[in-house]
């Protein structure tokens, strides 16, 4: 039995690819506990997060009902209790449960790769990074606009950007220009205004014998910066493209 909780892109819980329907309230509550799995969750904090508009008695009742419903729903899926309560009654996700959480996989794989010394991204660390980035199928809880979601969405976007940059650098170092370019473009899909990544992609095109593609990439960057920010590429980028146009080494 493969149980999966997906929060990146489409929000869904599935068992062997069969979707299990959760109410938005239950899914939001579950997602919050997964994203903030490293911290305790006093009931007062959860009430403030999810039921701040209710009077205290009503808010406590809503929290109790939400916890009970979520625990029962998760228990029905595979008979194990993913949602534990501390001695103080604070809920937390049991990460030892046989469940795949895409957010957990993304954060673990990318963090391990960023901690690895430069030049030592290989073996399991490389495989975990590739798997982590494969789990990033879109923004966190796409279409949701809770304050905590917006903050964590941006944090995860930046983490994945760093992961793709790490992967791009690795493939560049080993001379695998095709995969380096693929990683660079993946990073730019997350944040196209990252000029350092744009520079690296231009360099990779040129180093792989694609001078015309390098110049086209620069032209796209120039237009993007003009349209979005009203600025020109940096002197470093302009110097790079001048050398490329002249056919010089970079």
Indicate the topology.
Blueprint: E1 3-6, E2 12-15, E3 18-20, H1 24-35, H2 43-50, H3 56-78, E4 83-85, E5 91-93, E6 99-101, H4 102-115, H5 123-135, H6 147-173, H7 177-190, H8 195-207, H9 211-229, H10 235-245
Parallel strand pairs: 1-6
Antiparallel strand pairs: 1-2, 2-3, 4-5
Helix pairs in contact: 2-3, 4-5, 4-6, 5-6, 6-7, 7-8, 8-9, 8-10, 9-10
Strand content: 5-15%
Number of helices: 10
Low-confidence stretches: none
**Please, what is the average pLDDT?**
93
Keywords for this entry:
250 residues, alpha+beta, Arc Repressor Mutant, subunit A, four-stranded mixed beta sheet, two-stranded antiparallel sheet, 10 helices, 6 strands, 62% helix, elongated
Could you explain how this protein is built, in words?
This protein has 250 residues and is of the alpha+beta class. It has a domain at 3-100: Winged helix-like DNA-binding domain superfamily/Winged helix DNA-binding domain (Arc Repressor Mutant, subunit A, Orthogonal Bundle), CATH 1.10.10. Helix content is 62%, strand content 8%. It has ten helices and six strands; from the N terminus they run βββαααβββααααααα. The protein has helices spanning 24-35, 43-50, 56-78, 102-115, 123-135, 147-173, 177-190, 195-207, 211-229, 235-245, and strands at residues 3-6, 12-15, 18-20, 83-85, 91-93, 99-101. The strands form two sheets. A four-stranded mixed sheet has the order 3-2-1-6. Strand 1 and strand 2 form a beta hairpin. Helix 5 (123-135) crosses helix 6 (147-173), helix 7 (177-190) runs antiparallel to helix 8 and helix 9 runs antiparallel to helix 10 (235-245). The longest helix has 27 residues, at 147-173. It is elongated, with a radius of gyration of 23 Å.
């Amino acid at each position: 039995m493969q149980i999966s909780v997906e929060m990146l892109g489409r929000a869904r819980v599935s068992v062997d690819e069969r979707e299990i329907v959760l109410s938005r309230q239950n899914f939001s509550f579950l997602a919050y506990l997964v994203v903030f799995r490293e911290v305790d969750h006093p009931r007062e904090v959860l009430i403030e997060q999810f039921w701040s508009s209710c009077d205290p008695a009503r808010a406590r009742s809503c929290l109790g009902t939400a916890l009970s419903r979520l625990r029962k729903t998760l228990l029905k899926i595979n008979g194990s209790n993913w949602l534990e309560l501390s001695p103080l009654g604070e809920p937390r996700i049991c990460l030892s449960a046989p469940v795949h959480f895409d957010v957990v996989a993304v954060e673990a794989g990318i963090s391990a790769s960023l901690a690895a010394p430069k030049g030592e991204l290989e073996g399991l660390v490389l495989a975990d990074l590739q798997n982590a980035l494969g789990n990033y199928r879109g923004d966190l809880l796409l279409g949701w606009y809770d304050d905590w979601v917006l903050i964590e969405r941006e944090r995860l976007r930046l983490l994945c950007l760093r992961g793709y940059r790490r992967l791009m650098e690795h493939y560049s170092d080993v001379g695998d220009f095709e995969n380096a370019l693929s990683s660079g473009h993946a990073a730019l899909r997350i944040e196209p205004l990252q000029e350092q990544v744009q520079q690296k992609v231009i360099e990779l095109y040129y180093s792989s014998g694609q001078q015309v593609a390098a110049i086209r990439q620069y032209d796209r960057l120039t237009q993007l910066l003009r349209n979005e920010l009203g600025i020109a590429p940096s002197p470093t980028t302009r110097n790079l493209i001048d050398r490329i146009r002249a056919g010089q080494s970079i």
